[in-house]
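F.,

This is the one I mentioned.
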């Protein structure tokens, strides 16, 4: 097979997008490669196509569980075998998945960077026939990047397991400094960078300083047809803004990470299928969603960085048709973004206290807890210890950096079941316990592979087949689990907290003060760049491209600054033409105002009168009674 035939067979495309083929060829030649491509540029194909061409398995590292699950499902729909190992999966489940990667025909193994901290995972990867290592969201490895993730620093250990295998690092947002840092941190053997311009010719970037942002938002939603995303700061705001839009007859819904996963999936699907026109969301929404016809993205609050803004704004206009990326802000927002900066950097003493509270929350003894993975309820934790949730979350980030713990994002795992007995032993149990016989027969008929591994089930579906209530179904499954006939793991929809090291006391808890100070300065400079973008009266596209080191970018002609400049230039040109006509007419003889207005062909009546008054004020022309004449 060729890369073209793979593209056609699995994706139905006849040609690659710009840079895709070059990146794929580089990987096939065994080169370590960094691909910088804007949002919607087709990054995933750059590792999926070469991995399918070569024998073996591709390991894909991504920090986003939702994105991993989407890509695995998309690959499976194409008949390509792929799995993801994510937080919340039990040791036995992970064990079986890794065995399938070694001995089976799995082509893609998706992992979070936190999973690479596990000795079990690293040891099993050693025995896999790996053909490519793909690092998605590669900017997360750089301290200078906008979304630094400490576990990414362990990716060099993945390289050590298969030193001869090329690495493909991919990101949509990286300055030159971050791009250089990615290559250093990943131990690139050769510096090979493919950079697609971050210029989006079809996007009109618009920035408005508005005291009444909601009124402006409603105007945008009414005047721009098609699907849209509105990004807001917090969960409460998603509901309030959506409610206001609906009151105005603009069909919208809201989305945030606090909603349970089935509801989030339902809302996301409704928006993707254009049943809901506008989604009001926190930045938890949009990553990895392949919807090409989004016509506008509005940020109702100042973003944390231009990298985040560019990525989120880039979710509109993926079909290359005209689209609008709008930023609305006011003076109150400027004060708030500075306040939020301080919230993100709890003091060293605060971090230590939060770590101590965490140990008490789980009733961990000093020296205990290493390797534990526990469901974590942030709201309950903060309520119990009277903590600010924002400061607590950012304290965890510093504890992650120093490798005391790792906090995963919210993850949805369906209920799972595996039969622990052999076929013969299970049959004997059914004969001896006839009350369970019918239930077990339906369970076995409904789910294949249930003796070999944990399989996903839906209690409600099983209940219908057995003709009992869902509550009774859960009771029976739990009883069979208790009798050690099956393993039954009910569904979960919570983040997980992993203790990487045993619990230590405050005296032995080391927090890197220099890193803490450096991160503060980096974040501060990112906020300053956002404020400069909003307030500098320069071409918006040019400003963004300059930030990403494209220093010779042309003015876009379609942002708010360029549009206003064009109007002013047009007005100046029109005024010049009106002046020329007035002076020409009056050079012949004095003229009555009506005659003078009639003789001018350019502009409307108001525009002609304004120029006449301007010439009178300047003393260029005079009026005597009813007649206008040139100054002598």
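My design for it:
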């Amino acid at each position: 097979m060729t890369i073209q035939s793979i593209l056609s067979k699995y994706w139905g495309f006849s040609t690659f997008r710009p840079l895709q083929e070059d990146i794929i060829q580089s990987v096939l030649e065994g080169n370590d490669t960094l691909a910088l491509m804007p949002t919607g540029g087709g990054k995933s194909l750059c590792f999926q196509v070469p991995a399918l061409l070569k024998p073996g398995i591709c390991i894909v590292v991504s920090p986003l569980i939702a994105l991993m699950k989407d890509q695995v499902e998309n690959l499976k729909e194409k008949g390509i075998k792929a799995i993801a190992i994510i937080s919340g999966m039990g040791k036995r489940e992970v064990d079986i998945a890794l065995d399938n990667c070694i001995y089976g025909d799995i082509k893609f193994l998706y992992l979070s960077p936190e999973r690479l901290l596990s000795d079990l995972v690293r040891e099993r990867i050693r025995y896999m026939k790996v053909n490519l290592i793909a690092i998605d969201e590669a900017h997360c490895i750089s301290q200078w990047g906008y979304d630094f993730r400490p576990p990414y620093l362990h990716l060099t250990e993945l390289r050590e397991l298969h030193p001869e295998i090329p690495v493909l690092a991919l990101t949509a947002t990286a300055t030159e400094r971050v791009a250089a840092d990615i290559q250093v941190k990943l131990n690139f053997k050769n510096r090979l960078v493919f950079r697609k311009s971050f210029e989006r010719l079809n996007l009109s970037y618009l920035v408005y300083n508005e005291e009444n942002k909601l009124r402006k938002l409603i105007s945008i939603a009414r005047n721009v047809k098609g699907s849209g995303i509105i990004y807001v700061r917090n969960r409460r705001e998603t509901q309030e803004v959506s409610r206001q839009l609906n009151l105005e007859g603009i069909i919208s819904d809201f989305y945030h990470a606090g909603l349970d996963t089935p509801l989030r999936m339902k809302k996301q699907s409704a928006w993707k299928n254009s049943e809901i026109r506008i989604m009001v969301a926190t930045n938890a929404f949009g990553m990895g969603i392949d919807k090409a016809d989004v016509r506008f993205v509005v940020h109702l609050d100042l973003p944390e960085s231009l990298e985040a803004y560019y990525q989120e704004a880039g979710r509109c206009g993926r079909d290359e048709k005209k689209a609008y990326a709008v930023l609305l802000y006011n003076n109150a927002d400027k004060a708030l973004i500075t306040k939020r900066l301080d919230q993100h950097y709890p003091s060293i003493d605060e971090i230590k206290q939060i770590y101590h509270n965490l140990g008490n929350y789980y009733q961990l003894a000093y020296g205990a807890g290493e390797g534990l993975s526990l469901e974590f309820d942030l709201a309950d934790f903060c309520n119990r210890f009277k903590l600010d949730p924002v400061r607590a979350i950012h304290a965890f980030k510093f504890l992650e950096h120093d490798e005391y713990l790792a906090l995963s994002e919210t993850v949805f795992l369906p209920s799972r079941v595996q039969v622990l007995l052999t076929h013969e032993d299970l049959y004997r149990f059914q004969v001896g316990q006839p009350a369970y016989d019918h239930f077990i027969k339906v369970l076995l008929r409904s789910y294949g592979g249930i003796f070999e591994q944990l399989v996903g089930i839906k209690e409600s579906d099983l209940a219908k087949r057995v003709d009992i209530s869902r509550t009774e179904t859960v009771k029976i499954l739990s009883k069979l689990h208790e009798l050690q006939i099956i393993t039954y793991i009910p569904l979960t929809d919570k983040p997980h907290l992993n203790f990487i090291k045993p619990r230590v006391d405050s005296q032995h808890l080391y927090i890197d003060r220099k890193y803490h100070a450096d991160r503060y300065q980096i974040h501060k400079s990112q906020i300053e760049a956002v404020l400069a973008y909003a307030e500098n009266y320069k071409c918006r596209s040019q400003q963004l491209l300059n930030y990403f080191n494209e220093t010779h970018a042309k003015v876009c002609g379609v942002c708010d600054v360029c549009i206003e400049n064009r109007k002013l230039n047009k007005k100046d040109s029109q005024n010049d033409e009106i002046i020329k006509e007035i002076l020409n007419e009056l050079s012949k003889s004095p003229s009555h105002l009506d005659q003078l207005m009639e003789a001018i062909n350019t502009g409307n009546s108001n525009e002609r009168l304004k120029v006449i008054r301007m010439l009178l004020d300047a003393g260029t022309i005079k009026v005597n009674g009813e007649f206008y004449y040139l100054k002598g």
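DSSP finds 25 helices and 22 strands in the chain.

Talk soon.
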